[in-house]
Give the backbone structure.
Amino acid sequence: MKKILGLFLSLFLAAQLSASAADTNWTAKANVDRVNRIGKALLIKNNLPTKISFKVIQTDDVNAFANADKEIYVYTGLLKFVNNDDELAGVIAHEIGHIVNHHVAKQNVTSALTSTAIAASNLDYRLKAGARTANNLTMLKMSRTEEYEADITGVDLMTKAGYNPLAMVSVLFKIGGCYKDFTSTHPSGDKRTMYIYDYITYTYPQKAKLGYTTDSYKKFMMYADPIVKERNADPKKVAAFKKSQQKLQEKRIAKLEKYKTAKDSNAWDKSFNVIRAISY
């Protein structure tokens, strides 16, 4: 009888804890404050302009996004998904990367101008449809390139702000199944996380040596280790790797200096605002 009562009590407590977790208000002030604390730390510790606002919206999707108004929205589904502040910092730093690299405004300007040109052309409607499809695929390809830049920008911002950059590898590898290489604006999870990991190991080797303890990071290392071992066994591949990373590092140093002197608005933002005023 005692065993039955004990089992019943255990099940009851488990149900209560589960219900309590389900009832958590993820848009509560504490969670909004957490997002803002991490976001502001990333900006301030990197000497970046602070006129970026951070907001939380209620949806179970595991995502976040930045817009041309310099706002970063974090979904409540992402807050439930990340293991700690380092992983949340990784996602927020990535979105800051889109803003400081002017990706959002640039995409809006380019897409709007191209779409307007296609609509105003004398092309047959079938050719116009094909042109729109080609334009969309071009934008997807450009977006994937920008995702890589936003990722390593985020790594730089995280490291300077005192967060573990390997957390970005961990959280993105965990999300990785959500991304498709051709039909999505995001690179495939494996390629993306390997690109980030390579950048960290070359640019921040001491951070890479610290490692990371999550299950998703351990699974990533099972994927990455054979790639690294194969590369290290081939002097030509090692030389090519070092050369590409050196060029990337030089580019990143120049970019980081540019971010610090950047004003809160730029040509891309102004162009987008003009198009938006005309279009809406």
The longest helix spans residues 125-161. The CA atoms of residues 36 and 164 lie 18 Å apart. The two ends are 71 Å apart (CA to CA).
